[in-house]
């Protein structure tokens, strides 16, 4: 994080960093004081914009056009970092002849299957030698080049399991390590030429007409980032959920990754694409996941029918033939199973692989909510989550909770998700009544973070230990104690069971030391995560690196990427040597996975010969005398692989990494401009409009992401988009967000007077022009209506909201912070902005589109009781929306 | 005579004046509004440390992101939010350029003692030049226009300023306090003793910045009826701790330290901003020739003080005492003379 202070230019896009990550923002301030340029690209002028050199207003959901135009600008004007691009990316790699671009198919890539609404990525593969008779320099000739899609799930199920997210820290496996490359970049099927053609229509004029960004503003940003990239200078891109919460979210991030690779900003100090995470340990909750489709360390969750045997599974998660460290995925998986089932996991029973549940489909939070409505879910645990306020389509969430048999809420306060049965808006409208709700709610008080030991893993993948300051009061218990105790009770209850399905629970290792209050020792848990040697002369000793993990059952470890945090028996997450006593990299503060490395792929900070690109941007380099990599950080490379090293063709694993393959987790060692595999909705980012949009896609008749996840339901209606009849009923764009003063759904802020008084009421932000158009007054009331619901809020009329002019047409955007909810227990309450949202998801990661929607706004407060429903229905009927509206995946003709 | 005069106005060392034999270096804040992100962590940290109750009625004020309104008995740090369009930004640059033309008051620079009376705010031209208009308004306007043409005047900006008690050299609140509840600490700061204050409220009217107030509320509210304000965390700085607000500030917008150091940091930062093309930057407070003898809290502002709700020309009430006494003396003398004259006349 502190590396941002090394940046010469910082572009913050899809994030309101100063408001939502104020502590991290100190490094932007630091960079700025050192002379860096800071640009903020956002629909609203926020507190981030206030300290940036320039704010560029953008239409919500149009970021790929803007970034694509920057890519086009960089390519057409030869502004890319040529040596870096040729050596370190797959720009020179040839793609299969089968591949067809969206530019050829009016918005679809080759391989689209209408029946499944999903792609078969087979045709996106790297080119094979056999098909390659007519040209291309084959620098690593020979060898089979398998179909990178084979052995993997395709279609419906593939997309259902959110495949993109499974690859977390590394790229997805390819069956081969050898590719065809043309380092002159001239071959028409090189990634470079495909990229050039793909983004040719992304011009400043297109940006003006689609994003509402002036040609001047575009030129300013283009100049800022290109002048501040190259050997001597680096630019960083910073994003948060303003990018992820779209039906195309993962591709927004991919677009910036392409741009940063072209500019040579990856793996270098002051460069990179920085994902900001919005909670204290949300990074930790993906590393050791609370996600349904992942096991710890980004190992895939096995899928029924695809990974029925251990061999199927191991073959799918890491091919032995590809380059890099994912080839040892079997060692990571065996060590995990040994950590969970200990002695019971043996070679004979495939390390208890069959104890793992198998996925049968998507079980994300929204699918689960819909399953609740269908009566398929009996019980639910809520820990630190307030979906009745904080999740998209909060109405659907509350109605789902009302269908449960039991609900456990562990929260610091009596949140709306615990009291929905007596005071939710649906009680007022008469849709629900307390007498009819059968959900039994168990409210359990938790210990706060100062009342328990543990780690936080933050944005920078850094684990920081927090020590218990005071004992939790009364009946409050740590989450660790709650789950440990629950596990013990379940084991006791099933102790006599002979049912096979109870074996995984009964055989689970569950033996942490406890203190006098029964609270398990958090360090013992971290030690288990780090892993041990189980046999040999080091038996019982902690592992010091994941490279020590074995697939033969002689090691255990709960999360391979965390191995090393307890190296030599020392809790390194508790390291606290002050920053001023070390250099800026501060390796003795906390511990960052993997291997305490602070910048990933930092081999790229040196040129192909291993020398720093420049003195100014010196970071990691090859020490010729010592014959090893060294520098400011832990080198992210096999320590003694010389820059000139070239492996025997076809060598897999870390030994297959050439001296100039800095992206060691990718199957070919290169940064991927084009993703032959891993993204389910296309190998290149292309612009699609949000699920609800007043604008027609200017590029293709394919309006929205053709592989997004939609849920055609009567309780999940959409405003007609673009120029369809009825779209004028919901003419405005709304976007939801957080404020500094509150935390997400308010569970930790609306109950505290010091925070509640700072932002006491739900408000909307509108431009003076929209206020005039709709008769809204600053400080007055407004009702915002979407195709799902209507909410009331106070009005802030502000110049910070800018009406955008797109091809002569004015688009107004409305800002809605989402912290408030309807209930009686908090100090401040109000309607929930999330009631307005529907559910449509990104296919890669199943994230909802909550950053762009369509609405109307009228002056005054909303109707009460049943009249509210009638208002929403009246709008729906006027717009003509039905369960099918907006849910047609393919809108382009039969261009196949 | 000069010494006595400086007990009421002008440059002096307030700790020594308050009879501290061996005072600590005078402490103060430097609040750099150019890097403030308006997160209000200072407001919250202050309330947390000082156990200050909820302020106000939990209403949206409709005043940008400010729902606190002002400093008061239950808000000792207050972040102001000011939204400005390019016209106002240009005016700020013009007024800033004029200050540059005149030479910013260099902090602690010697100035004629006579200038003490009638000094304007710290942000204003050096007192020696007051009334002498050396600036060329056309030049300033031209500069602003040029900046706009270069695109360096944005269409919009959002100013944020975390305001706090100024801990004045001549603190009106302290001077008028009849009970001795307000006192000058060894750090040169001004602190209320809750258990001595009788809630008379003289200080409230006396403060030229509108900082100190009596706390509203019934007996359940801590210190209800008592005058309350920032203590510059007297209970922290005495133990070598940073005041809560400065400690919490994520961007180092609030700095704490020896006042002299804060003043020079402020001047340095203004110089940097000027050379970076922000002529609107200026120092507020800290000019010992201003109406309060200089403040213990120094600010870097990006517009005129009024824009932030700060008085452009704060003046301690006691500064007028000599004049008032002189006039009262003249009046008394005149009356005496008349009385004498009457007697003398009556004898006739």
TrEMBL record, chain B:
Chain spans, region Disordered: 1-24
Residues that hold [4Fe-4S] cluster 3 according to the record: 165, 168, 173, 207
Lineage: Bacteria, Bacillati, Actinomycetota, Actinomycetes, Micrococcales
GO cellular component, as recorded: cell envelope
Positions with a binding annotation for [4Fe-4S] cluster 1: 36, 39, 42, 249
GO biological process, one term: formate oxidation
Gene3D superfamilies to which the protein is assigned, alphabetical: 3.30.70.20
Essential cofactor(s): [4Fe-4S] cluster
Alphabetized GO MF terms: 4 iron, 4 sulfur cluster binding; metal ion binding
Protein name, as recorded: 4Fe-4S dicluster domain-containing protein
Xref: InterPro entries: 4Fe4S_Fe-S-bd, 4Fe4S_Fe_S_CS, FDH_Electron_Transfer_Unit, Formate_DH_Fe-S_su
Annotated residues for binding of [4Fe-4S] cluster 2: 46, 230, 233, 245
Boundaries of every 4Fe-4S ferredoxin-type domain copy: 27-57, 156-187, 188-217
Transmembrane spans: 328-346
Source taxon at top rank: Bacteria
């Amino acid at each position: 994080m502190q590396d941002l202070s090394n940046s010469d230019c910082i572009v913050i896009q899809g994030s309101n960093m100063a408001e939502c990550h104020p502590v991290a923002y100190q490094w932007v301030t630091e960079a700025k004081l050192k002379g860096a340029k800071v640009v903020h690209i956002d629909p609203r002028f926020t507190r981030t914009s206030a300290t940036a050199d320039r704010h560029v207003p953008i239409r919500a959901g149009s970021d790929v056009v803007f970034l694509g135009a920057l890519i086009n600008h960089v390519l057409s004007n030869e502004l890319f970092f040529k040596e870096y691009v040729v050596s370190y990316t797959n720009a020179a790699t040839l793609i299969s002849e089968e591949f067809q671009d969206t530019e050829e198919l009016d918005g679809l890539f080759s391989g689209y299957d209408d029946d499944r609404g999903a792609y078969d990525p087979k045709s996106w593969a790297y080119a094979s030698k056999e098909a390659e008779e007519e040209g291309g320099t084959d620098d690593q000739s020979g060898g089979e080049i398998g179909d990178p899609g084979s052995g993997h799930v395709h279609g419906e199920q593939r997309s259902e399991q959110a495949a993109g997210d499974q690859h977390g820290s590394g790229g997805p496996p390819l069956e081969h390590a050898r590719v065809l490359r043309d380092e002159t970049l001239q071959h028409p099927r090189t990634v470079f030429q495909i990229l050039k053609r793909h983004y040719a229509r992304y011009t400043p004029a297109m940006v003006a007409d689609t994003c509402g960004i002036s040609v001047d503003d575009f030129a300013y940003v283009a100049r800022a980032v290109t002048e501040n990239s190259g050997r001597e200078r680096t630019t960083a891109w910073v994003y948060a959920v303003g990018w992820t919460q779209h039906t195309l979210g993962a591709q927004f991030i991919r677009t910036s990754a392409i741009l940063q690779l072209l500019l040579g900003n990856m793996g270098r100090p002051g460069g990179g694409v920085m994902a900001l995470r919005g909670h204290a340990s949300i990074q930790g909750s993906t590393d050791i996941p609370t996600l349904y489709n992942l096991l710890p360390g980004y190992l895939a969750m096995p899928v029924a029918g695809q990974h029925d045997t251990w061999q199927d599974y191991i073959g799918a998660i890491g091919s032995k033939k590809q380059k890099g460290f994912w080839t040892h995925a079997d060692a990571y998986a065996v060590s995990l199973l040994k950590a969970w089932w200990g002695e019971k996991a043996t070679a004979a029973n495939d390390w208890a692989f069959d104890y793992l549940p198998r996925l049968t489909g998507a079980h994300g939070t929204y699918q689960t909510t819909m399953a609740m409505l269908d009566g398929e879910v009996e019980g639910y645990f809520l820990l630190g989550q307030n979906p009745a306020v904080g999740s998209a389509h909060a109405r659907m969430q509350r109605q789902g909770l009302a269908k449960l048999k039991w609900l456990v809420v562990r929260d610091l306060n009596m949140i709306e998700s615990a009291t929905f049965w007596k005071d939710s808006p649906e009680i007022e409208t008469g849709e629900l009544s307390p007498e009819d709700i059968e959900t039994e709610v168990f409210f359990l008080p938790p210990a706060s973070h100062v009342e328990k030991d543990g780690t936080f893993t933050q944005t920078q993948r850094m684990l920081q230990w927090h020590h218990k300051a005071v004992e939790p009061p009364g009946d409050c218990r740590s989450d660790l104690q709650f789950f440990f105790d629950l596990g013990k009770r379940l084991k006791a209850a099933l102790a006599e069971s002979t049912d096979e399905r109870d074996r995984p629970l009964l055989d689970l290792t569950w033996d942490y030391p406890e203190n006098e209050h029964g609270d398990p020792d958090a360090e013992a848990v971290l030690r288990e995560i780090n892993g041990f040697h189980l046999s040999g002369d080091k038996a019982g000793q902690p592992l010091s690196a994941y490279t020590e993990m074995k697939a033969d059952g002689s090691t255990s470890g709960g999360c391979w990427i965390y191995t090393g945090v307890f190296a030599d028996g020392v809790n390194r997450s508790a390291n606290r040597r002050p920053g001023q006593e070390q250099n800026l990299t501060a390796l003795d503060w906390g511990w960052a996975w993997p291997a305490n490395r602070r910048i990933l792929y930092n081999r790229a900070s040196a040129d192909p010969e291993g020398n720093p690109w420049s003195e100014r941007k010196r970071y990691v380099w090859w020490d010729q005398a010592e014959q090893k990599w060294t520098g400011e950080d832990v080198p992210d490379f096999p320590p003694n692989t010389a820059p000139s090293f070239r492996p025997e063709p076809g060598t897999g694993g870390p030994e297959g990494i050439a001296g100039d393959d800095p992206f060691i987790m990718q199957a070919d060692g290169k940064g991927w401009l084009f993703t032959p595999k891993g993204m389910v909705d296309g190998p290149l980012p292309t612009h699609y409009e949000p699920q609800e949009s007043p604008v027609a896609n200017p590029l293709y008749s394919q309006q929205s992401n053709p592989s997004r996840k939609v849920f055609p339901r009567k309780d999940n209606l959409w405003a007609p988009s673009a120029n369809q009849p009825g779209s004028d009923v919901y003419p405005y764009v709304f976007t939801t967000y957080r404020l500094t003063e509150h935390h997400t759904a308010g569970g930790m802020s609306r109950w505290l007077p010091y925070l509640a008084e700072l932002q006491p009421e739900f408000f909307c932000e509108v431009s003076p022009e929209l206020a005039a158009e709709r008769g809204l007054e600053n400080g007055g009331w407004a009702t915002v209506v979407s195709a799902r619901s209507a909410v009331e809020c106070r009005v802030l009329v502000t110049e910070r909201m800018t009406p955008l002019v797109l091809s002569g047409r004015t688009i107004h955007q409305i800002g809605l912070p989402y912290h408030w909810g309807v209930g009686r227990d908090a100090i401040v309450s109000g309607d929930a902005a999330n009631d307005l949202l529907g559910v449509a998801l990104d296919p890669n990661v199943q994230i909802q589109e909550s950053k762009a929607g369509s609405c109307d706004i009228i002056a005054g407060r909303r109707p009460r009781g049943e009249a509210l429903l009638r208002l929403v229905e009246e709008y729906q009927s006027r717009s003509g929306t039905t369960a099918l509206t907006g849910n047609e995946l393919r809108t382009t003709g039969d261009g196949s | 005579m000069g010494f006595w005069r400086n007990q009421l106005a002008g440059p002096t060392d307030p700790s020594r004046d308050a009879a501290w034999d061996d005072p600590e270096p005078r402490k103060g804040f430097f609040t750099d509004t150019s890097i403030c992100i308006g997160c209000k962590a200072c407001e919250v940290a202050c309330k947390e440390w000082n156990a200050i109750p909820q302020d106000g009625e939990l209403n949206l004020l409709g005043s940008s992101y400010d729902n606190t309104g002002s400093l008061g008995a239950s808000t000792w740090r207050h972040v102001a939010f000011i939204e400005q369009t390019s016209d106002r930004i240009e005016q700020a640059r013009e007024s800033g350029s004029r200050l540059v033309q005149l030479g910013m008051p260099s902090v602690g620079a010697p100035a004629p003692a006579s200038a003490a009376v009638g000094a304007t705010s710290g942000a204003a031209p050096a007192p020696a030049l007051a009334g002498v208009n050396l600036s060329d308004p056309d030049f300033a306007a031209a500069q602003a226009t040029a900046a706009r043409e270069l695109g360096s005047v944005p269409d919009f900006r959002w100013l944020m300023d975390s305001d706090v008690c100024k801990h004045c050299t001549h603190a009106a609140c302290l001077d008028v306090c009849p009970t001795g509840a307000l006192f000058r600490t060894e750090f040169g700061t001004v602190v209320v003793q809750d258990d001595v204050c009788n809630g008379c409220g003289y200080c409230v009217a006396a403060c030229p910045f509108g900082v100190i107030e009596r706390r509203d509320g019934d007996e359940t509210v801590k210190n209800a009826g008592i005058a309350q304000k920032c203590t510059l965390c007297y209970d922290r700085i005495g133990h070598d701790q940073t005041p809560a607000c400065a400690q919490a500030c994520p961007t180092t917008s609030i700095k704490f330290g020896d006042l002299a150091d804060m003043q020079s940091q402020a001047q340095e930062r203004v110089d940097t901003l000027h050379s970076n093309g922000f002529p609107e930057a200026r120092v507020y407070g800290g000019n010992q020739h201003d109406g309060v003898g200089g403040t213990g809290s120094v600010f870097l502002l990006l517009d005129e003080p009024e824009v932030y709700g700060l008085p452009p020309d704060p003046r301690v009430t006691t500064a007028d005492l000599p004049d008032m006494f002189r006039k009262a003396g003249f009046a008394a003398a005149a009356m005496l003379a008349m009385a004498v004259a009457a007697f003398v006349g009556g004898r006739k």
